[in-house]
Amino acid sequence: MKKLLVLIYFLSFLVNAQEIVKVDLSSPKSTVYTHIYFLQNDSYEPKKAAKTILGLPEKKAIEKAIKIKKVLDGKGLFIDFNRLPTNANYKDTLDYNSKERYVLFPQRMPSIYVEKVENSWYYSSETVASIDRIYKEVFPWYVNKFQDFIPNSGYTKVLGVELWQFAAVIIMFILAILIFIIFKKITYTILQKLQHYITKSNSSLAINTVLKKLAHPISLLVAVKFIDNIFPSLQFSLTVNKWVFLAINIAETVFWIYVFLKLVKVIMKIYEEFTSKTDNRLDDQLVPILNNLLTGVVLIFGFFKVLQLFGVDTTTILAGATIGGLAFALASQDTVKNFIGTVAIFLDKPFHIDDWISAGEVTGTVEEVGFRSTRVRAADTTVYQIPNSKLAEMVINNSGLRLYRRYNTNLGLRYDTPPELIEAFVNGVRIIIKEHPETKSDSYNVEFTGFGDSALLVMMNVYFKSLAWGTEQSSKHRLHMAILKLAAELGVEFAFPSTTVTIEQFPDKSNLSPKYNTDKEKIKKSLDKVLENFRNDTPPENTPES
């Protein structure tokens, strides 16, 4: 009785096993499983595997099915059947036509996919038509030819690997190193010529250094691509190929990230040299901002690419990041406003670096325009950090954009100054302004304009050529010194707030009023002497600009 029960259990197991391995084309998972299962060593039935190919004679269908399997194994594309769809009416949501199809490896092998025809799933007509070409790309003839020269001893296995495979791996890596060295020199030369063609100028030492660094990862990519093309023909197992090609794809992704990072450096170096030749220093501040922005974009895309290699669905992450990004944006409105303010400043260019500006309560020199804020240094060397969002909304008085620096003041003379000396003094100041190398000689005013409470007012309005604050102060110094010497030589005195009490008869006291010499010859000699000294004076050194 016991033996009968065991026999019944064994027969039921065989029936279930037969049901599991029958040809099933009802869904993407069942079709792919049928194809792969019947081409395994312990269940090799290529005729059943060929059922997944539609519209070809049996012999031709078997050939196509075997090639599809070899391509997947050769590229290390391991199929996780738990992730394959079991829905008989599955539609590819990434396809804008929403076709009933399923792509096994969208990133690495998009040409191999199954599609629904009537009520069954088969490998697509595109897959069947292109599999011969794909097979030749994965298993190039020159590598397969290498196997014709392998002696019988080469098929001896050591640690589960044949000796000829060990030798082929060593030769492959030696050739990859040689390819890297040769292509590095070729790539560097091409990059130099390309840079010269684009910029129409010879590359500097800094650009040459960056170009060499850019040529390095490009050459590595060529060497890795060589290994990627050769390795499938070495006929390692699917498990080995899976991990090897995962490493190769990760290396390719890392090298591409490295290439784009270095490419950003090259572009920024060229742009930096271009901006250094322009008078506008605001665009110099754009270099680090663009560099950080482009670097961040490259790293983010590279990160998502690496995640895809490990089978992570990046669309889910992006959807979550969008929702999280919305919440983050709401929590960091000031940062977004500052970024928009930065863009507005670089577009409108209301000021440049080293311009003297007044923005609200802050007055000083613009030192740096950053990603978030602008740094302004006041005359007392105090540093103000103004958020760009606020700065973009402020009324900015940019003294640095003036054509000239205007200087207006009143020179107060004593009330008892004779008219002849006033006229001589005014004419002398006019000539000094004309002779001054830093003043605009065709636009000035020196006039006796009125009577003040304690002085006769001589208005002086003059324009200095230099926009630099320090140069303006040096120019004022030289102008003031010349005016003081002119007044001293003419005997003209400057007034100050005072009250004069005049007593016409005061015994034994002399008159305190100054004695003025109005002799015309004396006035002319005084003017000539002062102007000659002014012309010969060496101007003082410029003071440091605040």
UniProtKB/TrEMBL annotation:
Keywords: Cell membrane, Membrane, Signal, Transmembrane, Transmembrane helix. This is Mechanosensitive ion channel protein MscS. It comes from Polaribacter reichenbachii. It is found in: Cell membrane. It is a multi-pass membrane protein. One of its GO terms (molecular function) is mechanosensitive monoatomic ion channel activity. Belongs to the MscS (TC 1.A.23) family. Residues 409-494 form the Mechanosensitive ion channel MscS C-terminal domain. The lineage of its organism: Bacteria, Pseudomonadati, Bacteroidota, Flavobacteriia, Flavobacteriales. Its main location: membrane.
